[in-house]
Every structure is written in structure tokens, then in C-alpha cells.
Amino acid sequence: MQKILIIEDEDAIRRVLVKIIKNENNGYEVEEAENGLQGLELIQTHDYDLVLCDIKMPKMDGVEVLGKAQAIKPEIPFIMISGHGELETAVQTMRLGAFDYISKPPDLNRLLNAIRNALDRKKLLVENKILKKKVDKNYEMIGESKEILRIKEIIEKVAPTEARVLITGANGTGKELVAHWLHQKSSRSKNPMIEVNCAAIPSELIESELFGHVKGSFTGANRDRAGKFEAANGGTIFLDEVGDMSLSAQAKVLRALQENKISRVGSDKDIKVDVRVIAATNKNLEEEISKGRFREDLYHRLAVILIDVPSLNERKEDIPLLIEYFSDLIAGQQGNTKRKFSEGALELLKDYNWTGNIRELRNVVERLMILGGEVITEDDVRLFANK
Ligand SMILES: Nc1ncnc2c1ncn2[C@@H]1O[C@H](COP(=O)(O)OP(=O)(O)OP(=O)(O)O)[C@@H](O)[C@H]1O
Fold first, then answer.
1. Which among 36, 187, 353, 385 has most CB atoms closer than 10 A?
2. Residue 273 φ then ψ, to 5°
3. Model-level pTM?
């Protein structure tokens, strides 16, 4: 059921609107207010998917209702109803955030179209909000150890700048998480963050993946295709496992960083790109450089800021917090109740011989939640924590 509120002081117009809307779709629930003040009260106390609002009304006019409603519930779309001679005001309300306007007397098709479009947009906004919440939840960074606090502090300082960042650390320590935070807290966050796992792409394909190609440039290239650098334009590219990139791809990335230009494979036309680069690796790049497998000049271009993410064993005090977080997350995902871990169980888990990969900790928590008792005890840990 989608809820629509009509705020209109003229009885006749209100009645026509209600009739049209109800006839159109019996999935619409319609409520009415006779003036702006009453309308605003209803908006404050009820949830609506759409408001149709007259401009000229006693007590509070439509422009004021729109402004006040936007301050408290900005997601509700407004369609303004403009009387004779109010066209200019109607256009102005769109600048203030109204979704659309219709003129009196309402034209049936125009009205129904505007309503459908406004409701679609509302649905999209809500879906986006839910998605964003989900994304934020997936990227929570748990930990109060001085190592994690230091990383958060660096992120706060570095994210708003254009500086390139190289994130190092063992597998599963949270490098990707750091990269997401850097993007989310930057002015580029409205644009995409494009991830490329350099280790997962065969070396003969990596250039085309990063820079795109033109039709006919190699067997199978049967149409022009943009690469990840172009896709990330205005945003961030995250080069994960950058230490695994071939030397020829490294040369091209270096050029992209030096000149802010790329060219698609098989073309000599330059394309300007505005991309911030964040890279990550679990390799020791200095060692790779000494072995001739990684370009030193590229290393210096990438590592303006270095963030080393410590392994779990170096910040054991975060383990109980992570256990609680994962227990909550798993319970939410699987629809069962969150499990309590006894003090003794937490102590044992703190001293467990972790590989350092946080995914291992998550798996152990999940295993204990399945195999352990209502409260997870030291005995449960002894019996079930090891594989
Ligand atoms: N501090 C943290 N708080 C909560 N979850 C975390 C934390 N650090 C890592 N994780 C979770 O652990 C998993 C592994 O983290 P992530 O993918 O960021 O690691 P990575 O170092 O990029 O791994 P890889 O080297 O395998 O690419 C992810 O699900 C991530 O959300």
C-alpha cells in the first residue's frame, strides 16, 4: 500500500484528486488535509510516500510546507498544485526540491504520470538507503587497539586529500576495508570505487582490463571496450594485489599516474582520466624491487602514504570485540539469536594461535555458534575451535 497525502484547501479539487488517484490504482491509500498547517502535522506524525500540495492556502502556504517537510523528511517527494498565475512560483518550488508540479484544473494523464514517477523515485531512494546501510555495515572497522586507532586517524587525515596510498599487510588483515574507508571519506565518494584484483587476472589480459581495448586489437576483441581506469573516472581505482602485476602493465600504470592519461590497447589515442589510485599488497615490495619484479619508480608513485595493517596477533585485545561483532553479524544473517561467550572462552580465543586472517576468526565464531552450547564456554572452545 502506497500512502499519498493531498493538502488542498479547495474541497472540489481535493475530491477530484482523491477520486482520480483511487480509480487509478486501489493500491494507493489517500489521506487529506484542508490546509498547510494540518498537512504538516500529518507529515510529522505519519509516513507518506508522496504529497500533493497546493501552493496557495490559508494558514501555511505550499512553499512553506515544502520547506518544513524537507527539513524533517527529505525523502518524501512533493508534487505542487499551482493555480492560475502561479506558474513562476511552481517552477521555483522545483528549485527548492519539489519533484514536479501540475496546474489546476488537473490534467488526468499529466497527474497520473507525475504520481507514478514520483513514487518510483521514492522507491529508489529507499532502496538506495537500505543498500547504503548494508554496505556501511559490511565495512565496519572493529577494534580499539592502538594499532587500529592509529589507522583510523591516518584515514581521517589522508582520505580528503588526493594522495595515493599503498596499503600493506598479510592476507585478510583488512586492507580492502581500509581502501573502502579512504574512498568513502573522500570527496570522490559520490563517484565509483572500482576494484581490480591484479593477481586474479591473467597477465596477458591485465592491460586490456585496466585500460580497455579497441576492436580488432587482439583475437576475441570484437568491439571497443573501456577499461577500469575509465570506469573509475572521477572516483578511485583500487589496485588490489598490485605486487602481482606484470612489468608491462606496471609501465602503463606508471604512465597513467604520471600523465593522468591512458590509451586503450590497440589505440594510440590518449584519454584523459581523473582517478585516485589506492593500491594494496601482501608482498614485500622492496624485496620485489630488488629482485627486478617490481618497478621502483612505480613504487614511489604509489606509496606517497603507506598504511601497514597489523595482523590479528599484533592486536589481540581486539579479538573479543571482533568475536562479539561476528556473533552479532552471523546471528543477523542466519536469523538465530546472538550467542554469549564466557569470559574464559574469550580469554582462550584471545591466545589461540591465529594465522592473522580475520576470516579465520569469523569461521571459528560461526563454528562455535553451530556446535557450542547456549553460552559458549572454555570447553566448547577446546573441543570445537580447532578445525
Ligand atoms: N577491523 C575489522 N573489523 C571488522 N571486520 C573486519 C576488520 N578487518 C577485516 N574485517 C573483515 O575481514 C574480512 C577480510 O578483510 P579484507 O578483505 O579487508 O582483507 P584484505 O587484507 O584485503 O584481504 P586479502 O589480502 O585476502 O585481499 C572482510 O570480510 C572484512 O570485512
1. 36
2. -130, 145
3. 0.67
